Amino acid sequence: MPILRGNGTQILATSIVLPGATGGPLYLTKSGAGAPPYSFAGDTNSGLDSSAADTLDFVIGGGSALVLSAAVLRLGLAASATPAAQTLTLGENSRSGTDTDVGGSNGTVRSGLGTGTGTASSLIFQTPTTTGAGTGAQSYATRLTVATASVTSTVQIIGPDGSSGAPTYAFASKSNAGMYYPGGDSVRISTQGFDRINISTTTIDLYLPLKMGGRYIEGDEQTAPSAPGSNSYRIFAQDNGAGKTQLMVIFASGAAQQIAIQP
């Protein structure tokens, strides 16, 4: 049975009829004090209120748990107007078909803005640590934290393969420079849309001159490698049999020639 309260009076009625052929508005006074005007007999501090113009507050336990306005949907605004930590849980989406972007607008997820002291806050993404049918009590682990100066991930970040002209990991001011996956067991670095370095399980291939910039190349003695392919050569160092290091080059023919020897 509906209950109508006001000024300390409680009225029981089977129905409330508003004037006019099609009814009319029912106005109630905003409370803002943990006693929403639209509430329940068994829970008078939970219900519907309005904390400001053009705003609806869903009040739970005397505090605004969900605030709807023309500009924002906000979770976790406590009765003291200080943002409290709250969780928004989204269920599985079982709809079929293609989702559309209503009105061409963008969606924004925003963390709390602190308590007015300028304290920075973070946006944290968590997922369950246990899943499956019959799973008991859930626990959650942080996977991604977006702070004011950094983004921290505790899991692998996987992107598309990319290409030399549009590498997977690029830069805001240079979208054709970065790193991508060309296939096989290799990674490539490109600039200006062209491959510059290829790193595979067996070689590091350079597609431009190597400039040392005042540095040097250091290597160890080894046994002579096999001959390279056609029109190629391999430079290596070996012991000359008398305790001195030889710098050698070997050609596709298999012939090796000394370039220099330790004095």
Structural account:
This protein has 263 residues and is mainly β. Among the domains are: 1-84, no CATH class; 169-206, no CATH class; 219-263, no CATH class. Helix content is 0%, strand content 37%. The protein has no helices and 18 strands. The strands form 5 sheets. The protein has a 5-stranded antiparallel beta sheet, with no helix packed on it. Strands 11-12-13-14-15 form a 5-stranded antiparallel beta sheet, with no helix packed on it. A hairpin with a 4-residue loop joins strand 17 (245-251) and strand 18. It is rod-shaped and about 110 Å long. The termini are far apart. Mean pLDDT is 78; it is low at 77-85 and 90-106.
What key attributes describe this structure?
263 residues, mainly beta, 5-stranded antiparallel sheet, 18 strands, 37% strand
Helical run tally: 0
**Amino-to-carboxy terminus distance:** 107 Å
Instruction: Name the structural class.
Output: mainly beta
Mean pLDDT: 78
**What percent strand?**
35-45%
Question: How many strands in all?
Answer: 18
**What best-fitting shape do the alpha-carbon axes yield?**
rod-shaped
Radius of gyration: 35 Å
Share of helix, binned: under 10%
> What summary fits the major beta sheet?
5 strands, antiparallel
Main sheet strand line-up: 3-4-5-6-7
* Unreliable residue runs: 77-85, 90-106
Order of helices and strands: EEEEEEEEEEEEEEEEEE
